[in-house]
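R.M. (postdoc): so does anyone remember the format we settled on? I'll just put the structure tokens first.
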């Protein structure tokens, strides 16, 4: 399942943009969550991703987050949506976003300290097998790191709806069978970054637990919840009322 905009998650981003007129989307990919109500510029390092942007999306410049080709204070807001964990140098990328943004910086991503709360991560993928280092698992470390680069930040929970149409890693928390589909896994960077043997083993165990009722016995209560906090956070650095 490809990444695409879920309108309920987009509403959180739209609210955080406030009165911003000009927006820079860093690590923009194929254009998910780019609001059409603003003057938007996209930055994306991958030519492959740029080629996949639909016709009519915002103008895009091929560049990395670590060296944004803009003057200081060029945009009201700089945002990065589930992309900063892919940057070669996050500290440099965050500093660049702060440099080019007049009012604020927005990030949407999962708090790494919350990773173990998600049943797939905890019970099947061995807490992501070292993808998240021990210091990032410490409560508050992520916030401290963000504040070191961006100044004071606010972390706002973004619940994920049960029928989320975006294909990010935690989106199928109430649809566990979706993770058995290789097309879903192929569209999620977590599965590509983990050892293939580890992923295959996890999927076999999940398939077995779904077949014999083990998963439902453990997590059947999730099937009655309309949304869930899986650790997704909207990070707002700067004055949200600006």
């Amino acid at each position: 399942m490809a990444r695409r905009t879920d309108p309920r998650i987009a509403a959180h981003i739209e609210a955080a943009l406030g009165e911003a007129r000009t927006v820079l989307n860093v690590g923009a990919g194929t254009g998910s969550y780019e609001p059409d109500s603003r003057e938007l510029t996209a930055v994306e390092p991958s030519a492959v991703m740029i080629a996949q942007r639909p016709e009519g999306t915002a103008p895009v410049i091929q560049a990395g987050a670590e060296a944004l080709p803009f003057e200081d204070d060029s945009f009201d807001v700089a945002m990065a949506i589930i992309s900063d964990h892919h940057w070669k140098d996050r500290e440099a990328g965050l500093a660049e976003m702060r440099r080019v943004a007049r009012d604020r910086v927005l990030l949407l991503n999962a708090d790494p300290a919350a990773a173990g709360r998600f049943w797939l991560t905890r019970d099947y993928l061995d807490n992501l097998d070292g993808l998240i280092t021990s210091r990032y698992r410490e409560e508050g470390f992520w916030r401290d790191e963000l504040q070191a680069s961006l100044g004071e930040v606010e972390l706002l929970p973004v619940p994920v709806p049960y029928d989320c149409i975006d294909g990010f890693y935690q989106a199928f928390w109430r649809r566990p069978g979706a993770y058995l589909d290789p097309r879903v896994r192929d569209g999620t960077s977590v599965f590509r970054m983990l050892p293939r043997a580890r992923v295959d083993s996890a999927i076999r165990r999940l398939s077995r637990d779904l077949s014999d009722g083990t998963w439902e016995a453990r997590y059947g209560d999730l099937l009655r919840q309309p949304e869930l906090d899986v650790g997704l956070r909207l990070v707002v650095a700067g004055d949200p009322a600006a």
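R.M.: ...and that's the designed sequence above, right after the tokens. Also worth knowing: DSSP finds nine helices and nine strands in the chain. Strands lie at 22-26, 39-43, 60-61, 75-81, 101-110, 153-157, 160-161, 227-228, 232-238.
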